Fold each of these.
Amino acid sequence: MIEIQNLTFQYKKSDKPALRDVNLSIPDGDFVGIIGTSGAGKTTLALSMNGVIPHQIEGDYYGKILVNGLDTVDTPTAELCRIVGEVFQDIDSQMVSSVVEDEILFGMENFGVPHDEIGERLERILADVGIEDLRHRRIASLSGGQKQKVAIAAILALEPDVIVLDEPTGELDPESSRQVFSLLRKMNREKGVTVIVIEQKIMLLCEYVKHLLVMENGAVRFDGPTREVIAHTDDFKQLGINIPRVTELYGLLSAKKDAGERIPLDVEEATAMVHKVMGR
Ligand SMILES: Nc1ncnc2c1ncn2[C@@H]1O[C@H](COP(=O)(O)OP(=O)(O)OP(=O)(O)O)[C@@H](O)[C@H]1O
Ligand SMILES: [Mg+2]
């Protein structure tokens, strides 16, 4: 459980806050998407959740974040990282090894996972993430999507309660992006991992996440169940965030006919809506 209370943060060398009075509650087992224009404060929020802010990055910090009841200001980052694992925006800077299995072992060894458990956990995580065949590959030889899965596996091997991903599909093609989201959904559903993902591809977010958070200028503009948040079509346009085409179609259809109460979130739901409107 992550609780953020009145969090305001301003980087040391900045003249305006990067986060402004953020209040947020993320229950265990949630799958949250965070969207917002560039500079809205998404990465700053992510770095605050595992204590990198204010422990490693200094600035003016007001308010409070509680992670499983622990105040991030009073808790060492080594301890917080066991609860909140983070895959950074630039995964190349996060990777330390040249071979896949070493990358996953490195974290476990550093986090003091007992030696007799390490081998078994490595095999389990490779299977869970579906990358057994990559085990002995050099990281430099992997595709973007494969690399992203390795980064996720290395974090999940530490068995955090929460995983935060900062634009994990930024450099991936649509097929690999979908694979990453499917993996996150599997971990969320089967292992109960709380997933928080910052993402620009709103269609993917809408299909997968339970909650959607829209950030603007350091503040949380919308926060709620995905279908409710996505209903603010005009606000999204004003923020310069493209709404999914299926949502746009709902808007166009319901202006003329009864398209139903439910805004479609994926192609399947949009197809059902079109059939309903056409009476077949
Ligand atoms: N290290 C830093 N020092 C000073 N200001 C910073 C620093 N990092 C970010 N900022 C500023 O804080 C604000 C929020 O930045 P942040 O990186 O959190 O936004 P973001 O929503 O992640 O953007 P993007 O979509 O571009 O990744 C911006 O105004 C940015 O310029
Ligand atoms: Mg960012």
Amino acid sequence: MRAPGWYYRLSSFFREKFGVRVTKIPLNAGLTCPNRDGALSEKGCIFCYNPAFSPAAAKRERGDENRSHGIRQQIRRFQWQMEGRGQPAHGDKEPPPSFTPRNSYLAYFQAYSNTYGPHYLLDRLYNEALQAPGVIGLSVATRPDCLSADVLDLLTSLAGRHHIWLELGLQSAHDRTLKLINRGHNFACFQEAVQACQGRNLYLCVHLINGLPGEDPPAMLETVKRVSALPVHGVKFHQLQILAGTSLEPLYRQGAVSPLSLEEYLRITCDQLELLRDTIVVHRLLAETPQRDLLLAPDWHVPRARFAGMVEVELRRRGTHQGKGGFD
Ligand code: SF4
């Protein structure tokens, strides 16, 4: 059945499921990534930026039991600011002990690969977040090759009592592209990860990037077709952004990579929405960069809400909607 509206928004999904607005709290648990710490590579994906990254730092982080310090603090600060009840003027200023959130939240383990760590540490981090007042579940971002049976069992046990999203970075369904961008895994690895998550009460969200080097619009549409055919529940679309200090920067400066224009990105995203199964929740339509001074390209910037409006206008103009082109 087609979701209401032009496309299936995450806010609609939360309202249907919980009857209230749910806000995601971005967290940095201090974890790392096998594509950065040397386990797979020390270079990372070619679009990935981490100014603090070094192999030594990554190794130190892997053995540091104290890095969970701050999860509860990050949650409380975010909730306090979100609910308009205070604006910490300095990093060390805390919400008052009496503060209790009124709204519902998902703790979003966003930075790096958040299933990549020892079981006891992940257990502690996830539970610390889930025990925070107002937190009804987790969203855990990771790589498809970082899902051991142990970590899946841990997430499955949490999913019995909480709402759990697993966000899997894929970016493209084409192995040639995955190799070019140094992902360190192929599409088959992603398919196996999706399969391993079945029957565990986990919600799967897939991260995709449009405009990757070597990909034309038909390749980007093919990625969405392949993802739609799998038992996943959500997708995040992003435009390729070139950040200073990444491996993409020299390619961009040599003219080997040219980011999509706003018009191209809008057209491709709408084409993809038409192909996207209508029960898949759209978590995000485009990327925003908090550190705009690092953004070399593209030269356009549109706030997410405005881009969502542009997508709706375009789908209305076409007389179409999510799933119209392939999964009705
Ligand atoms: S998997 Fe994620 S954290 Fe690791 S290098 Fe790629 S983008 Fe960066």
